[in-house]
Amino acid sequence: MKFFTLSLFLLMFSTYYSSAQNFADSVLLLNGKSYRCNIKGMEGPSLHFEIKNKKGKIEQYFIADYRINSYYKNGIETAVYKQDDEIGNFLTYNESKRYAIGAYDARQTYKPYYVFWSSFALSYATSLWDTYLPKSVANDTNHVDYPNINTGFFQKRPTILPFTVPILLSVSFGLPNMRVKQKYILHQEGYGDKIYYTGFNSYAKQKRTFSALKGSFMGVGLGLITYAIFK
Questions:
Q1: pLDDT digits (tens, 9 = 90+) for 182-218
Q2: Cα–Cα distance, 101 to 37 (Å, whole number)
Q3: Domain carrying residue 164
Q4: I need a surface site. Which of 7, 81, 92, 230 has the fewest CB within 10 A?
């Protein structure tokens, strides 16, 4: 508990929001998102605080208490999360903090570039292969859909096959838990902590899913453009 309390304190005074360095308060959400801010206080079921955006303008934020782990105001930590099995809060406060810090680290350190580029390459290759007309089909007079007698790429109209790739890849990359390497762990006291790893993977899965969808749709789009140019 002491390790994570100290880590959270240091986390909140990091330069994550460099444009808001003069804002001394901070908020940590359960999903690992953190804000440097000026806290106004609780207003009903929401926490009211101010942040400074990238343009230097102050914005008002209201976030529901069920999304918040804790906040620091004037250097004093206030716990917002409360364990309550009836509403699905099965973790203790200490566990929820370790989970949130794991998700925070994933937001800062985990960049699934390999997911994006592999999804892009597989989708692009599938789009090109989908336009390939083999000799066996071209020589079959029953296939009236292919009026061209030429064989090879761009000789067959695209099908829906490439559009299934984004779904398959997002599931394949997004569902499995990853092994959290030490290089991704900002808060070293989380090493070996299953709850910390669960929090880390909760956000890492979202990153991989989004990267797979983005890369694969771009690959399909480029494949269709390539077909339109060379058909």
A1: 999 999 999 999 999 999 999 999 999 999 999 999 9
A2: 18
A3: 113-230
A4: 230
